[in-house]
Design goal:
The chain has a single domain, classed as RutC-like (60s Ribosomal Protein L30, Chain: A, 2-Layer Sandwich). Helix content is about 25%, strand content about 30%. It is built from 2 helices and 6 strands, in the order E-E-E-H-E-H-E-E. It comes from Arthrobacter jiangjiafuii.
């Protein structure tokens, strides 16, 4: 297995992500920031949980296009508009909503959450990037 995820003792306990990824693969895959655009052109969800779920589906689609999957991901970045700690429940609800559907490991691969003032289009609440390493 080219990717190993772990959290060494002494790091923040009970985080919803692993703190460290180690990879031995030979090919890197970078999925650019994905938002909640719907494949069928329907309006994007208006809530954070719905947008997180759809953005993760789009990341999964990008990974699959490069013959990768979430088990190959070594790093994720979540950009969230107007972040407040109270939003963590809604963000995690979006993750839980699709984790089984897209085979997303929980805890997540190493992840960062970064607050942004706004994203490229009004109404977009979250954008997600992923980096994977495959054989």
């Amino acid at each position: 297995m080219p990717v190993q995820l772990f959290s060494p003792e002494g790091m923040l306990p009970n985080a919803p992500y692993h703190h460290v990824a180690s990879a031995t693969g030979t090919r890197s895959v970078y999925v650019a920031g994905q938002v909640a655009h719907m494949e069928d052109g329907l309006p994007i969800p208006e809530d954070l949980a719905g947008q997180v779920a759809q953005a993760l589906r789009n990341v999964a689609r990008g990974l699959a296009g490069a013959d990768a999957r979430f088990q190959d991901v070594v790093r994720m970045t979540f950009y969230v508009t107007a972040w407040q700690p109270e939003k963590i429940g809604e963000l995690m609800a979006g993750i839980q909503l699709v984790a089984e559907e897209i085979d997303l490991p929980l805890p997540l691969p190493p992840a960062s959450l970064i607050e942004v003032v706004q994203l490229y289009e009004p109404g977009i609440l979250v954008e997600i990037e992923a980096t994977a390493v495959v054989d």
